[in-house]
Amino acid sequence: MKATTIGAWALAVTGLAVAAFEYNSVRALRQQLQHSDAQVGALRVQLQQRSAELEIQSAANAQLQSTFEGQIANLQSSLQSSSLQLSILSESLQQTRELLPANTAVKSASDDAVPSTSP
Is-above-0.85 flag for pTM? Predict the structure, then answer.
């Protein structure tokens, strides 16, 4: 009977050792889980912050794009206006060039018709 008692005690001690080992393993896993949950929570907060930042940046980019498109439209309009003015100026210069030889010829004829007052 003594062997049975020793065997029972040995089995009980082994059971306690296994139970303690499992308890410690479960406790370690719970700590890891809590740590992982904390990390997941922190990552979610960072994700929300980044999402908010991206929304703000996206809105700012849309505003800049709108501004640039307006500036491009203004530049195109100015370019068309300048081209039109340049065309008008070119025509005016051409008309002036066409009048110059005629003006010079008229002036030469009138200079010949006016008597000179020099001695």
Answer: no
3-state secondary structure 1-27: CHHHHHHHHHHHHHHHHHHHHHHHHHH
DSSP secondary structure letters along 12-77: HHHHHHHHHHHHHHHHHHHHHHHHHHHHHHHHHHHHHHHHHHHHHHHHHHHHHHHHHHHHHHHHHH
CA-to-CA distance for 64 and 71, rounded, in angstroms? 10
More confident residue, 33 or 4: 33
Model pLDDT for residues 21-64, shown as the tens digit of each residue: 999 999 999 999 999 999 999 999 999 999 999 999 999 999 99
Separation CA 90–CA 83 (nearest Å): 10
Q: By C-alpha distance, which of 14, 17, 35 is closest to 25?
A: 17
In whole angstroms, give the CA distance from residue 60 to residue 54: 10
Q: What is the pLDDT, as a whole number, of residue 61? A: 98
